[in-house]
């Protein structure tokens, strides 16, 4: 054995790097030994997307508070576009509701940040931790196998520079994405539901400023979201049936904008420009096990959901902070961070949030996809009642904000 860690994180993406930041206090206070394994070199220059086409994520107000707590928001704030209003509507029907930041007493309902900006801030922190000797970063490197050992430890075989080394870890955190090959090797199954839909994502421009308004527009066969971006761009997320996606991609820009306008309507203005269009298939995918002795599954590896309401990454960050708190409390109590009893407590604390968020997003998609008249009437009455009830709207807004 060439080393033993308290925590070994597999995956240096947004979730893995965020967990590292959340463990900074324990690394300093308790000399927590932490390592991170990343398949790509963290020192190689990364491609910067064209400014117009840069992809973005919606961070809830709750996620902003977490990043502020971790000392990251000051670096992100300059790149963040605040969401001041959210307008929810059902195309062709009377139901609608509007959420406003002033009504909720917050500076913004959420923020939209380009992914590469978020990645740059987290990557800089990762490099700082490594350069200060606080964390060992193995990059580029690949975890070849995980083997449970007595006492809730894991033996980790890591390939780097053509050689393989063995490490011991009290806790291994799998944060290597929704297609984790290590989960397959560990025989951790997934519950999977295919929506038979694709997300079409692109940045668009309109003929008037967005003024910080985000739109969630339900349109029969799939919801459409429009998020405010810097430079008065907006980020489009259009859910399209899988059998129609190739046609949408093949359209020239003028035809695409005309089709988009017909579906979305004119409430945001007139669409004048569209950037590069990209797509990915949509499914609900949940790990059947999130913890084992010495092991936690985190982020998209634990759960991936429909992008409606933009809750996926925000749920992952709430999980990440809860896991960091669990690890720190284990150390304070003199227990191994990989002790199953402690990890089961983490799952128990998060299960309500996870189930509510997953069910909420899945239910929205299925409810607004149905076209039976009684269902249409019921959901539009529901939207109208929500808009008229300050108490209900407040609870709905707090859930959307991750509070």
From TrEMBL:
Gene3D superfamilies: FAD/NAD(P)-binding domain
Highest taxon in the source lineage: Bacteria
InterPro entries in the cross-refs: FAD-bd (IPR002938), FAD/NAD-bd_sf (IPR036188), UbiH (IPR011295), UbiH/COQ6 (IPR010971), UbiH/COQ6_monooxygenase (IPR051205)
Keywords assigned by UniProt, alphabetized: FAD, Flavoprotein, Monooxygenase, Oxidoreductase
Names of required cofactors: FAD
Pathway participation: Cofactor biosynthesis; ubiquinone biosynthesis
One MF term in the entry's GO annotations: FAD binding
Any single GO BP term: ubiquinone biosynthetic process
Signal peptide (UniProt feature, chain positions): none
Record-annotated FAD-binding domain positions: 4-335
Pfam families, sorted: FAD_binding_3 (PF01494)
Annotated family: Belongs to the UbiH/COQ6 family.
UniProt protein name: FAD-binding domain-containing protein
């Amino acid at each position: 054995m060439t080393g033993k860690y308290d925590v070994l994180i597999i995956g240096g993406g947004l979730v893995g790097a965020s967990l590292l930041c959340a463990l900074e206090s324990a690394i300093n206070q308790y000399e927590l030994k932490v390592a991170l394994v990343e398949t790509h070199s963290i020192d190689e220059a990364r491609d910067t997307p064209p400014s117009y086409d840069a992809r973005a994520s919606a961070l809830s107000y709750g996620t902003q508070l977490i990043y502020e707590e971790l000392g990251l928001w000051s670096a992100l704030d300059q790149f963040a576009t605040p969401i001041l209003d959210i307008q929810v509507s059902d195309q062709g029907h009377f139901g609608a509701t509007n959420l406003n930041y002033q009504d909720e007493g917050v500076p913004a309902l959420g923020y939209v940040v380009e992914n590469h900006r978020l990645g740059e801030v987290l990557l800089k922190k990762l490099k700082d931790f490594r350069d200060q000797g606080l964390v060992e970063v193995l990059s580029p490197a690949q975890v070849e196998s995980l083997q449970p050992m007595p006492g809730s430890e894991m033996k980790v075989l890591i390939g780097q520079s053509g050689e393989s080394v063995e490490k011991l870890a009290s806790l291994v955190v799998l944060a290597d994405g929704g297609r984790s090959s290590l989960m397959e090797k560990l025989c951790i199954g997934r519950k999977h539901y295919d929506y038979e839909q694709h997300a079409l994502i692109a940045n668009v421009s309109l003929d008037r400023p967005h003024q910080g308004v985000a739109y969630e527009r339900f349109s029969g066969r799939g919801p459409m979201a429009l998020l405010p971006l810097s430079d008065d761009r907006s980020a489009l997320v259009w859910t399209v049936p899988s059998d129609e996606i190739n046609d949408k991609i093949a359209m020239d820009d003028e035809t695409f904008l005309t089709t988009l306008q017909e579906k979305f309507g004119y409430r945001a203005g007139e669409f004048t420009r569209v950037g590069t269009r990209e797509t990915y298939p949509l499914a609900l995918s949940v790990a059947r096990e999130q913890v084992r002795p010495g092991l936690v599954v985190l982020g998209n590896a634990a759960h991936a959901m429909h992008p409606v309401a933009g809750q996926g990454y925000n749920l992952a960050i709430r999980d990440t902070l809860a896991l960091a708190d669990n690890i720190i409390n284990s150390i304070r109590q003199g227990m191994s961070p990989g002790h199953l009893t402690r990890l089961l407590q983490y799952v128990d604390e998060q299960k309500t949030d996870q189930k509510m968020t997953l069910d909420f997003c899945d239910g929205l998609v299925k409810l607004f996809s149905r076209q039976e008249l009684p269902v249409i009437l019921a959901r539009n009455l529901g939207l109208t009642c929500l808009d008229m009830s300050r108490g209900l709207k407040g609870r709905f807004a707090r859930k959307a904000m991750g509070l």
